[in-house]
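Collaborator request, handled under Task 6.
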Amino acid sequence: MTLPKAIYDEAKELTIKKIYLSFSGGHDEGFLDINFDFPPQTNEPFKRVEAFHDKVKTWAYEAFQYSGAGDGSEYGDDFVYDLVEGTFSAKEWWYARKEGEESVTIMSVDSNPKPSSN
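Structure tokens returned to the collaborator:
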């Protein structure tokens, strides 16, 4: 997904090195977690970074149209915009059912169950 120039320019001005977009879904709702990678000495005012975060969030929801629809199994997509290297990377993930080894034993039946104390 192409990064808008206005967001790119503001990120560079804020000395952001990477923008991380982590979408997740599976329960008919899409969620987005946004993180930024700053140089160690960054002293950007929180309000300015928070306002930029909101701009990125608005753009990402519109651009990616991530619905989160699914069968209840969690899944997601992680996107990274590396502003230093000039690269974009994408990775998908999901939880899959994995069955363990089956255990079979002789079933027992209690013919004289004790009354419940309820």
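The cover message to the collaborator said: "Residues 7 and 55 are 8 Å apart (CA to CA). The longest helix spans residues 46-64. Please let us know whether this matches your experimental observations."
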